[in-house]
Amino acid sequence: MSESFTKGMARNIYYGGSVFFLLIFLGLTFHTTKEMPQRDHRENLTESVARGKALWEDNNCIGCHTLLGEGAYFAPELGNVYTRRGGDGGFKAFFNGWMKSQPLNIPGRRQMPNFHLNDQEIDDLAEFLKWTSEMDVNNWPPNIEG
Amino acid sequence: MSTLKFQSQAVAKPYFAFALILFVGQILFGLIMGLQYVVGDFLAGAIPFNVARMVHTNLLIVWLLFGFMGSAYYLVPEEADTELWSPKLAIILFWVFAAAGTATILGYLLVPYSTLAEFTFNELWPTMGREFLEQPTITKIGIVVVALGFLLNLGMTILKGRKTAINMVLMTGLIGLAVFFLFAFYNPENLALDKYFWWFVVHLWVEGVWELIMGAILAYVLIKVTGVDREVIEKWLYVIIAMALISGILGTGHHFYWLTTPEYWQWIGSIFSAIEPLPFFAMVLYAFNMVNRRRREHPNKAATLWALGTSVMAFLGAGVWGFLHTLAPVNYYTHGSQITAAHGHMAFYGAYAMIVMTIISYAMPKLRGIGEANSNKAQVCEMWGFWLMTVAMVFITLFLTGAGILQVWLQRLPESGEALSFMATQDKLALFYWMREVSGVIFLIGLLAYLASFFIGGKEAAKVS
């Protein structure tokens, strides 16, 4: 690097540039959080959905599944599982049966543990997954398989 | 300990040793998970996949934090040209952190996660159950306490001593690490908001402030092993980390594409992410340039190899493999696929595992009272470890990338109705997963060779030829 470009100039670019872009980032974050209510449908966020999210976290579901593409890649994406597995017509019945039949104990197949949830808890979890599936996330995932 | 410039640098040694022990644990659990990918019911009752994964990723984070702390305790006194403010505090915090970390890992392994959540009163302040932030809230508070004590210790040391560029960059990186971790305590009921701010920890750590820590450690080791003028190295350091933050902060946008956020993030995220490989490329040029201009033949050839290796692997893993799927139209198909896993593996190994091993390689001979470098025999063994681990990681990345491309092809690209389901796709990827597992075993062999180098050649120091 040329001698006319001094260490002091490099240092100023570091501190000045970082602060500048951090401020832009914070400004955009402020704007984004103002816009998000129109897309995340938080008006539908009931106590049941909130309990469902707590169950999702307390059982570390993210340790195998992805949710909106984040998490582990060992088990299916669940951000759209509500629509994939029956939607309004059949999801809750499917989900209740699915949770109670775990583990499937098919030799060699990946096993989902049984978390021993009661009917109320399974319903809360279903409500959480339903609410999640209704968020407007720019049309991700590309197809129903997630 | 006569080879240390400042006696208090010795506190780095337990940090490094414990980091390496945790590293072994991380790899063992990685192998268990890798096998569960193809033999689904392997240890399914004893160690379910989600537990193995939590242990694998949490051990990674914790061993790197131990490594960063050890690095800071080693290099800050020398850079500041004064003894550490309080070596006693450093040792106390070591035991606090080691005990809390061990208890947390045992908690993951011994009781169901929901029981752990109950025991630690997660319902009072729910923070658990989010990827990488699975630690019980009490552990998170412990981490904050340890971080504050650590920063106090370093801050006081630097205040009474020399304020070099390396010290300042390291400190801004470590302060950023502590500040952004505070977002781990924010867990709203709204999933979209939860995920948005979750990235304030995850992205702004690994694609932000951790890069400052990496840059500072690399600059320090390069000054030591090359003897190149500090002014030159520090100027490069500032330029590189400036690029890293300028691209990395708004580059967070590449995680906001599919999170109920405005579509402008797809443009901002794509543009700034495209710049993110540049600082890593600059780091490669810088490391090789400094080594070529070296003014002395340092007897520790292994440390030089690690320094060059980390720059190359960080560029490939974080830079190239990150860029591969960071543009919004590409990410639409690759998000959350095995491509993400491929990138994650090489980026973490190249940028952060290797930088910690770089400074361990440089500092350990001095910490153990051997001298500037281990015996040639020990260094040869260490370099075997370097190559086995690094080549194995290249193959792990390539196999996971292959798996990811096939996964996108079968599961994501076809229309609904024609696409294979997730589990049906996974069956088709089995061969890639088996080859990944074999590469993982070779990685473990490399790690064992690396560890064996600490026990070879005794206290005999290398001579400059």
Automatic annotation (TrEMBL), chain A:
Domain Cytochrome c, first and last residues per copy: 47-133
PROSITE patterns: CYTC
MF-aspect GO terms: electron transfer activity; heme binding; metal ion binding
SUPFAM superfamilies attached to this UniProt entry: Cytochrome c (SSF46626)
Sorted UniProt keywords: Heme, Iron, Membrane, Metal-binding, Transmembrane, Transmembrane helix
TM regions (residue ranges): 12-32
Matching InterPro entries: Cyt_c-like_dom, Cyt_c-like_dom_sf
Protein name: Cytochrome c
Species this protein is from: Thalassomonas actiniarum
TrEMBL record, chain B:
Residues in Cytochrome oxidase subunit I profile domain copies: 1-465
TM helices/strands, residue ranges: 15-39, 59-77, 89-111, 138-159, 166-186, 198-223, 235-258, 264-291, 303-324, 344-363, 384-410, 430-456
Documented EC number(s): 1.7.2.5
Keywords: Cell membrane, Electron transport, Heme, Iron, Membrane, Metal-binding, Oxidoreductase, Respiratory chain, Transmembrane, Transmembrane helix, Transport
Localization (cell): Cell membrane
A GO biological-process term: electron transport coupled proton transport
Membrane topology of the entry: Multi-pass membrane protein
Subunit text: Heterodimer of cytochromes b (large subunit) and c (small subunit).
Family: Belongs to the heme-copper respiratory oxidase family.
Protein name: Nitric oxide reductase subunit B
